[in-house]
Amino acid sequence: MRTSIKSRVAAIVAALLMVSLSCGIIEAKTPVTITFWPSSNPQEIEFAKIIVARWNKQNPDIQVKMEPLPASRSTEEVLLAAIAAGTTPDVCANIYPGAISQYIAGKGLYPHDKLPGFYDFVYERSPKEIVDSFTYRDGHIYQIPWKANPVMLAYNVNLLRENGIDPRSLSTYSGFLKAAEKLAKDTDGDGRIDQWLYAPSTDVTWWQRFFDFYTLYIAASGGKTLLDDRGRVAFEDEAAVAVFTFLRTLFDKKLVPKGMLIGDQFLGGKVATTITGPYSIPYYDQNAPEGFKYDFMPVPVPDGHKGPVVTYGDPKNIGIFANSKHPLEAWEFVKFIMSRENDLLWLEITSQPPYRKDIVDDPMFAPYFKKNPMMSKFVVQGAYTRGVDDSKYLIEIFDAISKQYDLCCVNGRKTPKNAVRDGARDARDILAGW
Amino acid sequence: MKEAAVEERQPSYLARLRMEYRSSDKAGYIMVLPYVLHFLVFVAYPLVFAFILVFCKWDIVSPMEFVGLRNIQRLMRDTTFWTAVTNTLKFLALHIPLQIVFALLIAVVLNGPIKLRGFFRGAFFLPFVISGAVVTILWQQLYSTDAGVFNLILTKLGASPVPWLTDPSIAIYSIAVMATWKNVGFYIVLFLAGLQNVPRELYEAASIDGANRGEQFWKITMPLLRPVTLLVIMLSTIGGFGLFIEPFVMTGGGPAESTLSVVLYLYKNAFQFLKMGYAATIGFALALMIFLVTLVQRKLLDVEQPY
């Protein structure tokens, strides 16, 4: 009798379970969790918080956990350490293409072209040449083109006008040098020059060259980078010599300050121009003194330069990491980050142009550009940008160039021709390895 | 017979020793265990690992590759490394004498009956406890060729501005002066401790014998401060070889590599170029240099006390 009751109870429980499962009452699936590392600056964190909240609301079965990139001297150091330790996130939205070789060498990144519908999505969103420029030498794409910060020349409209300088004259080296002579003055009568047209950095840290030599070299050479398609040194040429000569002349004639200036002297009205990206717009708007008027133009080029001025694009991309257990879900999230709506949100919050085709003509973006006319200059310039070469020795090569910049331009101890020759020789030695 | 039986029951010396250890030192072992673990994890393991790296090529992410003695061979012919060594020695050549002279002079003054002695002792020690990065940024601004306070004073006095950090022949010495200002407080404390250990009777006796202040300083104070002076020299030598934060923040090793120190070069190789094997080789070369220099210093200075 007892046995028959037990059997009946068991049968009822089994039947209930079957019914529950078939009706979906018992959910067997637990939500997938994806970790997402955005850059740790306040604007990008704000953007990340908004999109993650939206995504999590819309996708209860794929939850995203946002953690800003851990503090360090650079994102690259953090990501390399994470790859070495096997603690990478699923998605990171701050991939610097110059470090991609190291990430790939550490088998850190997922070959994104293997993701379903990858090319359809990226070619629809971004210009084909931009996407193709991020193809690695093994034929795979390990990063998804996201945004660029084309570097341009910001200038103080009033300071130039007060000194009778037409901003258009700054477009060539000769015009720039003439304007620099006009503007270098002792304005307070203490016997020291305290006003300049431009203040190039004298810091020898490798990445400082992105904002003087490298940008000017890309512009002077019509869009060349340091290495050619086969990874050989390509900067031993007239354009590099012209850039070194231009910068050296500025230092030789004492038209630019040597050493550190205290505070932001561009906003302080002591330096009339600076080479910077669109991210400076919100900073200037928030911190500029009353009446301060600024504008942007392409960086100067050698006299007689023909064609559009190409500049350094300072690209940053999104990457899915190889140790992600959910690459497909991560890919869905990445597509969400790069959606048309979120690109607009991104632009509004960070003032950094996304790699999006026809953005200026897109009616959805039109109100933004109407409200922020200066941003359209960066978007237009965005079509003429170059990134950095794909080499694991890139930092060392920049370091070698920085040494020559210091010797030749800042300290006048070498001729521009010899500096370029020695920089190229050092770069070849670095590339040869040991 | 009875005595023999007792003797038989006595445990051997070794057994007694073992028993003693077991009973009395268990607590001791437990007490030292955290330090031993700390030593093994944070000192011994990294040291052994770094030594292995000397013979390897490793960029953190790729597999380690054995390269034999290639890192050492490269170090021998690496002109940048030898420039860094020369710069470090130039820095030490100015930094150590400045450190000793200023620390000793200030300590002697602060050891005497001066007004606001406590305030001055605190004031001189203050830069030592301030963050190195903060001090360095402050001095970077003071040294600025076009906008710095030092050149403003010079210009007011009718002199030409000095390119403190932008002239390759001056920059390392500018850093040495700054480092002296930053660290002198610590060495003042050492000298003060030394001065307070000099018996007053010696000065009194010398004074009765007709010795003036100068003679007392050279004949009593200096000889009795010799152990402290040796300590100061050794500590500032070891600290000076570790020169990093000042050139890293102020000059990045420039101009023209004139402020590139050995540790800054090591850092660049390890964390910028990801050449961990080569960086480890530089590290061991630096340790060897410090060992040799301090050994020579001890041989030259560690003579017997005259009193």
How big is the Rg of chain A? 27 Å
Structural class of chain B: mainly alpha
Shape type of chain B: flat
SS-derived structural category of chain A:
alpha/beta
The CATH topology of the largest domain in chain A comes to D-Maltodextrin-Binding Protein, domain 2
**What's the oligomerization state?**
heterodimer
Number of helices of chain A: 17
Instruction: State the domain count of chain A.
Output: 2
Radius of gyration of chain B: 27 Å
Note down, in words, how this protein is organized.
- The complex is a heterodimer of chains A (434) and B (307).
- Chain A has helices spanning 2-23, 42-58, 75-85, 100-105, 118-125, 128-133, 157-162, 173-183, 213-220, 238-252, 280-287, 327-337, 340-350, 366-371, 373-382, 394-410, 416-432, and strands spanning 32-38, 62-66, 91-95, 144-147, 152-156, 196-198, 271-276, 294-297, 311-312, 316-320, 385-386.
- Chain A has 434 residues and is α/β, with parallel strands linked by helices.
- Chain A folds into two domains: 32-142 and 316-354, 3-Layer(aba) Sandwich (D-Maltodextrin-Binding Protein, domain 2); 152-312 and 391-432, Periplasmic binding protein-like II (D-Maltodextrin-Binding Protein, domain 2, 3-Layer(aba) Sandwich), CATH 3.40.190.
- In chain A, the strands form three sheets. Chain A has a five-stranded mixed sheet with strand order 2-1-3-10-4, covered by helices on one side. Chain A has a four-stranded mixed sheet with strand order 6-7-5-8. In chain A, strands 9-11 form a two-stranded parallel ribbon.
- The longest helix of chain A has 22 residues, at 2-23.
- The relative contact order of chain A is 0.16.
- Chain B folds into two domains: 13-71, no CATH class; 73-301, Orthogonal Bundle (MetI-like fold), CATH 1.10.3720.
- In chain B, strands 1-2 form a two-stranded antiparallel ribbon.
- In chain B, 30% of the residues are buried.
- Chain B has 307 residues and is mainly α.
- In chain B, helix 3 crosses helix 15 and helix 5 packs parallel to helix 9.
- In chain B, 74% of the residues lie in helices and 1% in strands.
